[in-house]
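User: structure tokens for this one?
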Amino acid sequence: IEEQTVIVEGWLTKLGFKSAKWQRRWFSLDCSARKISYFRMPKGCNAGPGVASASASASASASAPAAAAAPPDLATTTSSSSSSSGGKKGPKKKGSIGLCRGTACVALRHGDPLPLGSLHGAGAARAAAASATVPSDTCFAVRLPHDQRTYCLRAESAQEMRRWMISIECAVNSSEHL
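Assistant:
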């Protein structure tokens, strides 16, 4: 079992690339793998995306050394990679975002148009018809240079948004991967 260095995890709302719907997901940033994984719910939670379990809340606030030089106020934890297997008892992994050199993380402003590359196919057509705009000031975008994909994410607060953005930038700029 390979080790993961999770420097931040928690609930974010993600804009569906094809569906153009905002969906609440449990996100986990693994600094050593330079990857963000997202799940329907956190490990140990069978109550759905509206309620985090006690074990998920405890793991988000546990502290351990992070591989990258993350700011000292960020929660860190270390866990095994077996949680992505899915199934009835574990979280169902919905996807992942591979971070690489050139990945940009930018804050979005309420009312601005959604970034190019954030929607595809039928979702893009639905969004264009609805004149889709950024729904709040706690939204940010993760832009990937290799496939021109942009992930639009919404945090529950401005502080959470900053925590995620700083952590992603730390993972992207981690000296062990350059």
